[in-house]
């Protein structure tokens, strides 16, 4: 199974070509949110380096969110376009689940992306089994931590946004929480996405496939709040 995997859901750009669980080539790099300019040239360069063509693909996998609205949308749009034009199956995978798979310890793995205003996109996974403990969603961080404090499990928080909330996380969870210092583990890897996609069912209709933002865009949220305050 020859898979192209794309993750542009946050500041990291990761693209991989994986065949039969073997990584042929992979790019994982921090960017300046210029995925729209870099994604297609990166994909083209990877195919050239391994002397393969997109027509040989068996599957296209993409990080479907949550994360940056723009980043998720770019990855999903490119993946849908390729899947449609090449007539290949498409699989969407949670951006949080991709990150969670970086650690396989017998502990809770909590991938986390900042969603501003003391809220986060997060999920809780069992590291040894990869089972979902708390579904991906948009959470108030304090409430999530209070919920996790009831467990005696060791916990790993993953993601580049963890640092800004580390003091709060540690103050609530104490010595149950383990800080992941390895930068590589805090970044998503498209090769992980590719192998995860093999466990999933391809989308039924490529044209109907949409990102999973887990939250309304801020402008829409503000508009709804404004209407509510007006009594509309």
From TrEMBL:
Domain Gcp-like: 30-223
Superkingdom field: Bacteria
Species annotation: Turicibacter bilis
Pfam families: TsaD (PF00814)
CDD domains: ASKHA_NBD_TsaB (cd24032)
Organism phylogeny: Bacteria, Bacillati, Bacillota, Erysipelotrichia, Erysipelotrichales
Protein name: tRNA (Adenosine(37)-N6)-threonylcarbamoyltransferase complex dimerization subunit type 1 TsaB
